[in-house]
Design brief:
Blueprint lengths: L1 E11 L5 H11 L3 E6 L5 E8 H13 L5 E8 L11 E3 L4
């Protein structure tokens, strides 16, 4: 069953390759959506995929690569917007 996750990641997550790490994970787990830097210093992740793959993807994003420092990861409930996403993209900064 298809699910969605909308994450906001706080910590040292900008300027350390966190968006590229997230995009590579998304490709590995067949996730569509986007990642982008926010002006607040956080990173926003919108991800759609099969529930089991999405769950594993989110766990790995929250666990982070060793060069980043995730202090907080919050999740919002949002509807699926799959008609808009066929790939996982790194968007321009907010």
């Amino acid at each position: 069953m298809k699910s969605v996750a909308h994450l906001f990641i706080s910590g040292r997550v900008q300027g350390v390759g966190f968006r590229y790490f997230t995009a590579r994970l998304a490709s590995r787990f067949n996730i569509c959506g986007f990642v982008r830097n926010l002006s607040s210093g956080d990173v926003e992740v919108y991800a759609e995929g099969e529930e089991s793959e999405l769950s594993e993807f989110c766990a790995k994003v929250k666990a982070r690569p060793s060069y980043a420092l995730v202090l907080r990861a919050s999740e919002n409930n949002v509807p699926i917007m799959s008609s808009n996403f066929n790939t996982f993209d790194i968007l321009e900064d907010e």
